[in-house]
Amino acid sequence: MKNQPEWWDPYSCQPYKLKDESKPRSRWSNVWDYAKTGLTALLGLPLIVISYLLLRAKPSSKDPKEFIGLSIDLGFGYESEMVDMVNELGVENLLLRIPSWDADDLDSYTDFLSELEGKDIVINILQSPHSTQDYELWQSQVRKIIGVTSGFTNHYWIGNAINRTKWGCRHSGEALQLQEKVEELRSEFHNLFILGSSVIDFEPLLTWRSLCNFAKFKLEATAALMYVNRRHSPYGTQYGIFDLKNKLRLTKAMIRLSNRSKNKLWITETNWPLLNTKPYTPNSGNPTRTVDEATQAEYLKLYYQIAYQSGWVERVYWWQLINPGYGLVDHRDGSLRKLPSYTAFKQLLDGELVQKPKEPN
What we know:
The chain has helices at 28-54, 64-67, 79-89, 107-114, 135-149, 172-183, 204-211, 244-257, 293-310, 340-349, and strands at 8-9, 14-15, 68-72, 93-99, 120-126, 155-158, 193-200, 221-225, 265-267, 315-318, 329-330, 337-338.
């Protein structure tokens, strides 16, 4: 990222955490949107339950290189080294973030994209805290980004972590409006493949709200930032029942019923934060909230294998290639140290993806 605003944390590659008093939960617009979310969930619950119960796993037949994706970011530099590592890994599906606030300064992104010829690229256009204050500006920025990069891809993931106020959306209604403004650009750019929803973590009420509504947009696929417990394996449960497989099952069940998205689920972001990597790790960095390098590599494999065996997921992208806090490569000492997860990622691409996952002891 070339232009880093004061509210952006360049280490963990996300906005700084907001103070509680800065979160507008009690505003009327928020309360009204919470009511819409609750009513939508109440009305949809019977159908969601039926869809969930009828859904059966069926292992994917995709080639590993069609299923496995990797996110890359220009925040730390090392562009030529990243290209070399992408080729060494053999990964074909890449995801590149482009912030809306960089819309007038895209040369570094296009230069980098030109080095990735032949790769399948998804561009994640990030919203800012200002995007929901000026929807016309947001649309103008997205128009510029698509216009400049459309020679490299037609796949665009719109927004990021729309259920986290620090990312700029005070409630889901604002995220839907951002998506609508992008939908209007289809008349200018043909054959766009748009991903959305963009809910981070396991928040099914908000996922359903983003997938079943009367907003004016259509998605070619649902993008889910599906993390599991920061400390536990993909077999760890939330609410007593939802391990990774059941989280994917519920999300897929909702997508099947959606009036906004086609029946495709892409996991556009996941990882495990690493021990003793503050400030790069997005959480406290303490042992209770992180894993060691060997465990991260083990959980990475399990995540991909579980998602693949379910048959409910089109692709999974690891976030990201270079980042000491949760990536595949550590750059802190001025050199690029490939972590155990780097090797695990390559092993999946080389064929281990199709193996059945083994639950840790």
